[in-house]
Amino acid sequence: MADYKTTITRKVIALTLAVCVDLSLFYAVGFGVKSHSVSGNLARLWVVAALRCSALTAVSLLILGPLKPVLIRYIAAHSLLAAVFETGINVLYGGNEQSACGLLADIHSWLMCTAASLAAALFWEISIPGTDDEAAGKEKKQKARVLFVRVLRLYKPDWALLLGASVFLSLAVICEMFIPFYTGRVIDILGGQYQSNEFLTAVFFMGLYSLGSSISAGCRGGLFLCAISSFTCRMKVKLFGALTKQEIGFFEAIKTGEITSRLSKDTTLMGRTVPLNVNVLLRTFIKTLGMISLMMSLSWKLTFLVLMETPITGLIQNVYDIHYQRLSQAVQDSIARANEAANEVVSGIRVVRSFHTEQGEARRYDDRLMNTHTFKTRRDTATAVYLLSRRLTGLGMQVAMLYYGRLFIRRGQMTTGNLVSFILYQGDLGDNIRTLIYIFGDMLNSVGAAGKVFEYLDREPKVSSEGKLAPDHLTGHVSFHRLSFAYPSNPNKTVLQDFSVELKPGQMTALVGPSGEGKSTCVSLLERFYEQQNGEILLDGQPLKSYEHRFLHRKIAVVSQEPVLFSGSIRENIGYGLADCSLDEIQEAARKANAHDFISHLEKGYDTEVGEGGGQLSKSERQRIAIARALVRQPQVLILDEITSSLDTDSEAKVQQALASYPNQTLLVIVHRLKTIEKAHQIVVIGQGTVQEQGTHHELMDMKGSYYKLREKLFTEGNSPQ
Fold first, then answer.
1. What average pLDDT does range 78-102 have in this prediction?
2. CA 424 to mean position of chain CA atoms
3. What is the rounded CA–CA span in Å between residue 20 and residue 688?
4. Which pLDDT score, from 0 to 100, does residue 720 have?
5. What's the confidence (pLDDT) of residue 101?
6. What is the distance between the alpha carbons of residues 469 and 467, in angstroms, rounded to a whole number?
7. Of 627, 680, 688, 638, which Cα lies nearest the Cα of 509?
8. What is the sign, positive or negative, of the torsion defined by CA atoms of 402, 406, 411, 414?
9. CA 18, CA 52: separation in Å to the nearest integer?
10. Going from the N-terminus, what domains does the chain have, and what CATH number goes with each?
């Protein structure tokens, strides 16, 4: 507490002493012997400015110690502002005017300089931050440059379109710059001694440049749009391909709305990064330089006056960008949450309808939308304030320009036509400067979207699919050897612990046990959806990861309890992923799955559309089509995950008969209806992630262990065990 009071006291003493010293030196400018020489007055101003800067720095160092960058900037601006202002007045008025900051210095002018210096120091601090902020800003800009170069390289196939667009862009800018110049010429000709030839020549060139500008601008825009469309399509396909290669755990951790946003929105923003930003930046930069050179030829004094708007515009734009980006991010996040709520309801509409929660879900969606509306209102308010500030700044500059323009016309320093041309240039120049300031922020936003896309493109799947092994003959001998596994989403919960099971060719192995004990996890690991933490899975004595990805998933087929069908025909769903699959093979697989009869009775047969997710078919029909989809591959290892729960007795018998026609096939069955596995060659009872019992049905019943107790629980009065 004492240190805090001491610090405050030192700051108060430093401020008081600095004000006294500064006022004394400031008044020394205005009082004393008045010099009639303008150069003498300016020299005295700059000498006193140097003395004030030195004195304030010395006082601050003696009392406060090492100075912060923002304080150094403020002292420099505060000390030099009066001299700079007096010099500017002298340049604009030609040494005939005197300001209140020089010869007539008083407390009001001192306060004005103090306020202006504080604004300048704040502008410097916000626009060009120092220390850690500066390092972070450099790192961000460096990252943005790297991303921009990567995007530019991806535009290589569209180089001809970009080159043509750049040529037309340059032509459009050059033609556009000369239109105000010839407008002023026409006004001067009409206001002076009219000469028909000069008038017609000026009008001709003005029309020619207008026509050239319009044609070039149209060609430029069309070529850029073609390049964007081509690039966006390529990037969406590339990103989609990268996403489909990721492991299953990736899709469990990343929400569907975020992935679709990357595919639809971020790829589009990424496509705009090069063409639109370079288009605007290059066009605006060339046009700005050209207009400044033409304005300098018309009146260099007015040009410098107009350029004073730039730092003010930059300060306003910088403050606006900070708030707008923060609010835009909040809007995007709230939209994603609203879309997520809508997707959940649409995908689970049966559950919503069953529990009669339509109104509750509508209120939840309304709350998400209202949250989005609130952030949008804040963002739009910030935009409105920004536009108002920008308009007021532009209006103030126009008033100042007209005032000094009238003064220069009276003094014969420029003509009326020159002033009109200058006004036309000034309007465009202000917009161009604001565009140049804005485009850098917008480019960072676009590059930020590219960074999110590259994050997915560069991501390496945690489950490798780089295996090369694809033998001509595969027996299907599977060995789970001392496996330990926990899901990536919950690494602290071990699902399988020291798990070992052997699946032999030509035999049916059944996994039984309570729900959540690891049966389906075995299937997921065998399908290489995840990578086990310890142990290994061997197929014919070779690690599973050493097999070629496409070969492995053709030799190992899974039919799940809740089969997934895709929009399209029954034929396309059965032959899914097999480009060379004939109709005869599809029909044979459907017969073995007891699906051919019901398919044949449909109006379009195998060309019948199944609807989204197979919604046009019953669960039993979807199940049989999924079985046919697995059998048509003639897999060496077939996994059936509780598929008989949706089949009637006749279909179940026919499916089992069909499976018996593959004597050398390795069959893994996960069931809860224990009666269906009594003929299995091997029954494995899983509990708490380990193998508790293993043997045939009769062996396990004689042991009277976990399997026996599990069957006993399924006895109900008047029913046989299921």
1. 59
2. 39
3. 82
4. 43
5. 47
6. 6
7. 680
8. positive
9. 10
10. 2-127 (no CATH), 478-713 (3.40.50.300)
Strand partners, 327: none
* Residue 4, token pair as written in the block: 């805090």
Rounded Cα distance, 510 and 516, in Å = 16
Runs of H (alpha helix) within 245-357: 248-253, 256-261, 267-273, 275-298, 300-307, 309-347, 349-354
* Phi, psi of 99, rounded to the nearest 5 degrees: -100, 170
Copy the structure tokens of residue 654. 């026919």
Is the pLDDT assigned to residue 37 strictly greater than 50?
no
CB atoms within 10 A of CB 297: 12
Q: For residue 262, which of 435, 414, 453 has the smallest C-alpha distance?
A: 453
Please write the tens of the pLDDT for every residue from 215-243.
888 888 788 888 888 888 888 888 888 88
> Do the bridges between strand 637-641 and strand 542-543 make them parallel or antiparallel, or are there none, so unpaired?
unpaired
Cα separation of the two ends of the chain: 78
Query: In degrees rounded to 5, what are phi and psi of residue 690?
Result: -130, 165
List of residues 6+ apart from 86 with CB closer than 8 A: 41, 42, 45, 99, 101, 102
- Per residue in 573-621, pLDDT (tens digit) is 888 888 778 888 888 888 888 888 888 888 888 888 888 777 788 877 8
CA gap 194, 215 in Å, rounded: 32
Closest CA to 677 of 658, 685, 719: 685
Res 662: pLDDT? 67
Condensed to tens digits (0 to 9), the pLDDT of residues 495-544 reads 888 888 888 888 888 888 877 778 888 888 888 888 888 888 888 888 88
Tokens of 508: 């049916």
The conformation of residue 616, written as its DSSP 8-state character, comes to T
Q: d(Cα 416, Cα 143) in Å, to the nearest integer? A: 50
* Residue 34, CA distances (Å) to 29, 44, 681 in order: 9, 11, 116
Token readout for 549 is 């990805």
Residue 237 pairs in a beta bridge with none
